[in-house]
Amino acid sequence: MPANRIRAIIFDIGRVLIRVDISRATSGLASGLSLTPEEVWSAIEKDPRWLDWQEGRISPRDWHLHVTKRLGASLTFEQFTEVWNRALDPKPIQSESFLEKLSKKYRLALLSNTDSIHMTEEEARFPFFRFFPIRIYSFRVAASKPDPVIYREALKACKVRAEEAVYIDDITAYAEAAQRLGMTGIVFRSPQQLQSDLRALGIEFD
């Protein structure tokens, strides 16, 4: 794809921009319970309301009540929020200089399956969010990857056609979903690999 046709670069957040270690959160949730951290995470992922949480159909306080009741935990909402956010590693994956250079030449956007507790913490904690004026979160648009709806929301917000956008995700199926809509998909493995793949597309950030 000619570089002059690429106008927007859309990033996933977890494991692309921010390191995520679910076990740090589930260890906190499992404290004092008979469940292992792995069993806690399995219970959450398979919870019938998990998608409602990811797509914004349940409030943070109701999610806290729902999860603690199901697990038999006794965490207050404040304790639950602190534990939930332990999954987020404070050291970002990408350098600020790299993102800043990209932001000067391309429209940068975020596209993530996420929740309001994590995003309140992330937006306050990580300065690099200033490079991303466009932020499409599953809990805000009531749709999650790989549903085409959430990708179209990102394209609409960026005011670009699919062929003018690059989408970066650590999950192959989500990058492929973007490709099916006509976007260029990159599966993220490392900062070095990402920069190499972007250069191969003619994207400039030096």
How would you portray this structure in words?
Helix content is 47%, strand content 15%. By secondary structure, the chain is an alpha/beta fold. The protein folds into 2 domains: 3-17 and 93-200, Rossmann fold (3-Layer(aba) Sandwich); 22-88, DNA polymerase, domain 1, CATH 1.10.150. The chain has a 5-stranded parallel beta sheet, sandwiched between helices. The protein has a two-stranded antiparallel sheet with strand order 2-3. Strand 6, helix 10 and strand 7 (184-187) form a beta-alpha-beta unit. Helix 1 crosses helix 2 (37-45).
Give a concise summary.
With 206 residues, the protein is an alpha/beta fold. The protein is 47% helix and 15% strand.
Topology:
Layout: E1 8-11, E2 18-20, H1 22-30, H2 37-45, H3 50-54, H4 60-71, H5 77-84, E3 88-92, H6 96-105, E4 107-112, H7 116-125, E5 134-137, H8 138-141, H9 148-158, E6 165-169, H10 172-180, E7 184-187, H11 191-200
Parallel strand pairs: 1-4, 1-6, 4-5, 6-7
Antiparallel strand pairs: 2-3
Helix pairs in contact: 1-2
